[in-house]
Design a protein that fits this description.
Layout (H helix, E strand, L loop, with lengths): L8 H23 L6 H29 L1
Helix pairs in contact: 1-2
């Protein structure tokens, strides 16, 4: 994953969409078969959370700066 602190908001939102799609494919792919790499799902969820955290911190920083 690219360094999220260097990405702009649009890039972060695109990354969230891609990660969510990967997680969806992982979940539905795993439902019908044996699990091959269980860590992959956890890693995807954590990456999504990291991106949301970065977006929230930028939002709070801009509000603090403006208000």
């Amino acid at each position: 994953m690219a360094d999220i602190k260097k990405m702009d908001i649009e890039g972060l939102q695109k990354e969230i969409v891609e990660k969510r799609e990967s997680l969806r494919k992982f979940r539905f792919g795993e439902a019908g078969s044996r699990s091959r790499n269980v860590k992959e799902g956890r890693t995807l969820r954590r990456d999504i959370a990291r991106i949301f955290t970065e977006i929230k911190s930028r939002d709070l920083a801009s509000k603090k700066k403006n208000g």
